[in-house]
Structures are given as structure tokens and as C-alpha cells.
Design a protein that fits this description.
By secondary structure, the protein is α+β, with helices and mostly antiparallel strands. The N and C termini lie far apart (77 Å). Helix 3 packs antiparallel against helix 5. It has two domains: 144 residues, no CATH class; 158 residues, 3-layer Sandwich (Rieske Iron-sulfur Protein). The protein has seven helices and 13 strands. The strands form four sheets. A five-stranded antiparallel sheet has the order 3-4-5-6-11. Strands 7-8-9-10 form a four-stranded antiparallel sheet, with no helix packed on it. It is elongated, with a radius of gyration of 36 Å.
Length: 331
């Protein structure tokens, strides 16, 4: 301890005597601390795995009731809790490691110029090596391995989020609610359609039986399954497959434009053309729904239909190709 004088009016109080921690003198206590740190890192790894599992398994639209929070998104809650635990355990493990196992000897050093002399650089390297040794990173292999595991897994949380950049390789866009035996229901009256209800030259919009506008997923399903029914004179149908898939001149085509997915609603009775109101793509419903004008890239998908024993129109299967603008590459 320095003594105050005229040149240095403030005395250097010095450092207090170093007090050893129990981990410094008791190896069993050090082992307990090591296991505690390893446990925290292990919990972090499990929480990261839980984050990834939650992101994959929990539906986006699922809600749960949490006391004090009310009804919230189950996915957001699970992601927040698991990621918070993963990050907290890494931090808590590092702090506990530093406070109980790393060296806590106080070291006082004089300040030096910004430009380090060779001997100072050598001292810094020596201090670094000494610090690495005192951290016991090489000796405490359990801590080292679990720490590396936790630090390696946590970034995967961000990598998994890249899934939202595009859809997973599924086939859900290739399929609709139409299947063999599904009745064609008038979208306006919500009643099944008989063949006798469809007049020549008329346009009727349909939906699959069982799809209600109050259903949670109604918009997603109707965006794929919306149907338009037109009755033509059989002799006016030019396409052989269209004629085979029709019933007494009644043809069923997807209502979704193959350009950007707008709903088609304009029908020219004399030419049998339907027009998309968004970008004026025009399709010939007497010739396989082919494009005759506009930016649409391919024909409208046709639904094969028939009648059941009671005379109601029914689907004989699903569309043969995906509806909407992206054709085979979607989904």
C-alpha cells in the first residue's frame, strides 16, 4: 500500500487479501459446479431441439389458453419459451462457470501506451495462455463438450426459420376437396345440383359438399375447389376428353384463373368463352378450357363429373392437375 504525500495526495489502497472459494480448496465442490454448468448447457441443447420440434409440429393457427396471458398462439408461445430457455441456460452456465471454477485472483497492472511494445505483446500472449489454463477448459472436459454442444445447436434455431422463405415440398396444392362421390353444391343457395337444374347457356358457381363458409379453413379450400358449371350442346364441344368428362353437355371447370389466381366470373354465352376480370385472360370452355387470349399460361383444369342414383351431379375424382397459376411446379 502506498502512502499519500504532496505529489500523490491519494494513497493506493491496494488489493484486499484474496479469499479462496470452496471450489478452490474442495475438489468435490468443484465437481458439483462442473456438473451444474454441464446441466445448464445440456438443458440449453434440449430447449433448442424443443424449439425446432415446436416449429415443425405445432400448426400456425393453433391457439392455447395461458393463465394471465389469455388465448395466444401456441406456436409463438412454444418458440419463445424454448428459445428463451436455450439462451438463458448458456448465459447462466457461462456465469456460473466463471464465478466458481475460473480463476478469480485479482490482478493489477499498469496502463501502457496504445502501441504495444514487443515485450508487452509477449506478456499479453502469456497472460492469454495463463487465462486459458486457469479457465480449466482443457481439464473440465464435461463442461467443454456440453458448452460446444449448446453453442452448436442454438444457431439451428435461426436456420430452421429459413423454412418460411418458401413452402416445404408437400403436395397439398395438388389436391382439393373434390373426390369421387362429392356432390356439386350451388355456392349461392347451398343446395346440391341436379342435372335438370342446369340450363343450356347458364353459368353456375359450385363448391364441394360439406364445405361451409363458416369453416376455419374455408378460404384456403375454396381457393382451390371453386368450380363453374356450364351447359353446352354436346355437339358444340370440340375437345374429346371434355366431352367424355361432361354429363349431357354439362362441363365443370376450375373457377381459378391460371394466370395469377383471380376468380373467373364473366361468361359469353354465344362463344362459350369465359373472361378473367383481372387481366382479361380468355378461355374457350367448348375446347378443353384452352387459353385464346391474355397472359394465362395454360388451360383451365376440368373436373370429371357424373350423376348419382338420385340424379344429383357429383364429382368422379379430383382435378388431374393443380388449379391456379403455377401448374406442376407448385407444391
Amino acid at each position: 500500500m502506498d502512502v499519500a504525500d504532496e505529489k500523490h495526495p491519494f494513497a493506493d489502497p491496494g488489493l484486499p487479501p484474496h479469499e479462496h472459494r470452496i471450489q478452490d480448496i474442495d475438489e468435490r465442490a468443484a465437481r458439483r459446479s462442473e456438473r451444474t454448468v454441464a446441466l445448464l448447457f445440456t438443458v440449453s441443447m434440449l430447449a433448442t431441439i424443443g424449439f425446432i420440434a415446436s416449429y415443425v409440429a405445432i400448426p400456425v393457427d393453433k391457439n392455447v389458453y395461458i393463465w394471465t396471458l389469455g388465448h395466444i398462439s401456441a406456436l409463438n408461445f412454444a418458440l419463445g419459451v424454448t428459445l428463451g430457455i436455450a439462451l438463458f441456460c448458456i448465459g447462466a452456465g457461462a456465469v456460473h462457470w466463471a464465478r466458481t471454477l475460473m480463476s478469480d485472483v485479482e490482478v493489477a497492472d499498469e496502463r501502457h501506451p496504445i502501441e504495444a511494445a514487443p515485450e508487452v505483446r509477449a506478456k499479453v500472449l502469456a497472460d492469454f495462455k495463463q487465462g486459458a489454463e486457469e479457465s480449466q477448459l482443457g481439464r473440465r472436459k464435461l463442461i467443454r463438450n456440453t458448452m460446444f454442444g449448446a453453442l452448436a445447436l442454438v444457431p439451428l434455431s435461426g436456420v430452421v426459420l429459413l423454412r418460411d422463405l418458401g413452402p416445404l415440398p408437400e403436395t397439398k396444392l395438388r389436391h382439393t376437396l373434390w373426390k369421387k362421390g362429392t356432390l356439386l353444391v350451388n355456392q349461392n343457395t347451398d343446395e346440391p345440383l341436379r342435372a335438370s337444374d342446369i340450363a343450356v347457356g347458364s353459368l353456375t358457381f359450385c363448391k364441394p359438399e360439406g364445405l361451409d363458409e363458416h369453416d376455419h379453413g374455408f378460404q384456403n379450400e375454396i381457393a382451390k375447389a371453386a368450380l363453374m358449371i356450364i351447359r353446352l350442346h354436346p355437339e358444340d364441344i370440340k375437345d374429346k376428353q371434355e366431352l367424355e368428362w361432361s354429363h349431357e353437355g354439362i362441363v365443370a371447370y376450375s373457377k381459378i384463373c391460371t394466370h395469377v389466381g383471380c376468380p373467373i366470373s364473366l361468361y359469353e354465352q354465344q362463344t362459350h368463352h369465359v373472361l378473367c376480370p383481372c387481366h382479361q385472360s380468355t378461355f374457350d370452355l367448348s375446347d378443353g378450357g384452352r387459353v385464346i387470349f391474355g397472359p394465362a399460361g395454360h388451360a383451365l383444369p376440368q373436373l370429371r363429373i357424373g350423376v348419382n342414383d338420385e340424379g344429383y351431379l357429383e364429382a368422379l375424382g379430383d382435378f388431374e392437375e393443380p388449379v391456379g397459376p403455377a401448374f406442376w411446379e407448385r407444391g
